[in-house]
Amino acid sequence: MSRARRRDAPRVVVVGAGVGGLTAAADLARRGADVTVCERAAAPGGKLRQLLVEDGLGVDAGPTVFTMRWIFDGLYADAGRRLEDHLELETADVLARHAWRAGGRLDLHADVERSREAIAAFAGPADARGFAGFCARSRDVYATLKDTFIAAERPSPLGLTRRVGLARLDALLRLKPWQTLWTALGEHFADPRLRQLFGRYSTYVGSSPLQTPATLMLVAHVEQDGVWLVRGGMAAVARALQRLGELQGARYRYGAHVAEICVEHGRAAGVRLADGERLPADAVLYNGDCAALAQGRLGAAVAHAVPDVPRAKRSLSAVTWCLRARTRGFPLEHHNVFFAEDYPAEFRAIFGRREIVAAPTVYVCAQDRGPGRAPAHGDRERLLVLVNAPADGDRGDLGAGALAGLQDRTFALLAACGLHVELDAAHCVATTPAGFDALFPGTGGALYGRASHGPMASFARPGARSRVPGLYLAGGSVHPGPGVPMAAMSGRLGSARLLEDLAPAAVRAGQQHVVDDLR
Asked: Are strands 362-366 and 335-339 parallel, antiparallel or unpaired?
């Protein structure tokens, strides 16, 4: 049963039911706030969405990787519940299967020793030793940043130094944020295919390995710490988070398009829906891309809440195909990556010439596959096929001819790697950067907020508190960054900051019992 709401509980409107907003709503309601979540879509999830390809059959059309489970375990534990009672997870034995057009196939395993042995067979003993050093380095980076950056409010460079502590200054220096990921990988791997494989971690934050800092290698340790497959697809995560919020007393309104964040006396005071309805609030938590705020799409009064992201600073967009089809010739795992030969050229084209190369890297999520699970021979299976693209969707669409040409090149690369997909246009839905821009206004289709380029990139994202009093932020475009677990963490950080700021007002109003609940 959901909790009863006190009449004098602080009112909070959460704008957007993405992972950050859902997480924040659960925390806010648990700690005594009167929470209403407004989402213009028909279901929770934001980018964590599914597309129907046949007879009600959904394909994950957004994030497909579930990691950093400790964030979700903590969220549920704080509510007196267990994650495993609300979400069915299974551990992935194979983290991802990789193949190259020029030849070669390599699996990364949950077991690091198995991965080392696979790399030794694939590229030789020297690169296997390089992998061991890379794993130790990524583990060190993660240990340094987990509590001081990921799970903490947005720090400045000086603030991060203070959090790490002078006694561990050597650990901070080992991060080498001035070194690019691509350069760092060259110190560990001689085989260019391994630089491609691990360089792809930069795309997890929508960026180029040629420009992201070496600290992004921490993704390797995140995956080694556990990758889980979600029964029912990733959309089940969003449904579970909504249910957790409902159990705490939060309310959810879908098809509720917030047209304006209202400001009174210099402070966020609620929202106005597109149909004219006004929802007053003591605070507003915005779970959308910050670019929409900066461009005045939520009203001129909050346009100064955050700085805008220039086009050149945007993260990657994508072209995706969600489909159900028969496949042959390649033994798919749940996560699969197919490479051409020149990885750096792909990112120079996207971030330089603003175009997609002739032979892009292709990611394929085979949603019906997992440990001990695969479609029966000859059966059709659900696939998400993705290539990286520049975030220029606000400048126009690709056009039918360009999209058809890209589709032909994409599936030709898969065929060159051994995977043949029997495409059926009736059961295939494509989304372009223009489509993503329509779904997530103000972004140009950028899926990860600001690109994480340069040594100061980690400090460029806004924190939980905006420049407008009473307006707070969550989601992949704010600290600590994009991705399902990071967005969840942003929701927790945003809700905590909001409640801490509201507490003094509650004390002044004589509502000590409310403050006690918020703490």
From this structure: antiparallel
The pLDDT of residue 22 is 98
In the structure encoding, which two tokens stand for residue 71, read together?
């964030």
45: tokens are 């999830």
**363 neighbors 290 (Cβ within 8 angstroms):** no
Quote the Cα angle for 17-18-21, to 5°: 65
DSSP string of 152-196? Answer: SPPPPHHHHHHHH-GGGHHHHHTT-TTSBHHHHHHTT--SHHHHH
Q: Which whole-number Å values give the CA distances from 511 to 5, 166, 280, in the listed order?
A: 14, 41, 19
Give me the pLDDT at residue 285, please: 98
- Is the whole model's pTM more than 0.90, yes or no? yes
Burial class (CB in 10 A: 0-12, 13-18, 19+), 84: exposed
Contacts of 324 (CB under 8 A, 6+ apart): 53, 54, 57, 59, 380, 381, 382, 383, 424, 427
* Residue 19, SS3 per DSSP: helix
Q: Dihedral sign, CA of 204, 208, 209, 214?
A: negative
Q: Give me the residue label for tokens 């963490």.
A: 489
End-to-end alpha carbon distance in the chain: 22
Q: What contacts 144, CB < 8 A, 6 or more positions away?
A: 164, 168, 171, 172, 174, 175
- The full set of domain ranges for the chain reads 11-87+232-308+456-518, 114-225, 312-439
SS3 state of residue 311: helix
Contact predicate 366/419, CB 8 Å: no
State pLDDT tens for residues 283-315.
Answer: 999 999 999 999 999 999 999 999 999 999 999
Residues of the chain with pLDDT under 70: 1-7, 166-167, 169, 172, 505-519
Contact predicate 451/206, CB 8 Å: yes
CATH 3.50.50.60 for domain 11-87+232-308+456-518: yes
Cα distance between residue 98 and residue 105, in whole Å: 6
333, 375 Cβ separation under 8 angstroms? no
Q: What is the DSSP string of 59-83?
A: EE-S---B--HHHHHHHHHHTT--G
Q: Are strands 335-339 and 94-100 parallel, antiparallel or unpaired?
A: parallel
Please report how many Cα atoms fall inside a 13 Å half-sphere around the Cα of residue 418, on the Cβ side: 15
The first and second tokens of residue 217, run together, are 């290698």
E-only strand ranges, 43-157: 50-54, 57-60, 89-91, 94-100, 105-109
